[in-house]
Specification:
The chain is α+β, with helices and mostly antiparallel strands. It has a single domain, classed as Orthogonal Bundle (Arc Repressor Mutant, subunit A), CATH 1.10.10.10. It is built from four helices and three strands. Strands 1-3-2 form a three-stranded antiparallel beta sheet. Helix 2 crosses helix 3. It starts with a helix and ends in a 6-residue tail after the last helix.
């Protein structure tokens, strides 16, 4: 597993919940939204296990809805517990990213 994959694995739940918080989405759409913001290595195969785990933990809820093009799709929404968890993740992220960024400040990176 690459270093990028390892780093992403640690924050992927929060990224997924942050997208779902903005609007209900289905798996493929979620994968595309994450890719569109620059997380190109987040595939559907990566997303579905995360969605199942988040749903099992009560942080999101999936609901089947009709699709305009094809079969019904399962749309995911944050639960109240999911919103609380996302707030906690965002708080912890802020307190990790700022010190790490200060350590790396001034490096000439590609």
């Amino acid at each position: 597993m690459s270093l990028r994959s390892q780093l992403l694995k640690g924050v992927l739940d929060g990224c997924v919940m942050a997208v779902i918080e903005k609007e209900p989405v289905y798996g493929y759409e979620l994968s595309k939204k994450l890719q569109d913001i620059g997380l190109a290595d987040v595939s559907e195969g990566t997303i579905y296990p995360v969605l199942l785990r988040l749903q099992k933990n009560g942080l999101i809820k999936g609901e089947m809805q009709p699709s305009e093009s094809g079969p019904n799709r399962k749309y995911y929404r944050l639960t109240d517990e999911g919103k609380e968890s996302l707030n906690t993740i965002a708080y912890e992220w802020k307190h990790i990213v700022n010190p790490v960024n200060s350590l790396f400040k001034g490096r000439n990176l590609p």
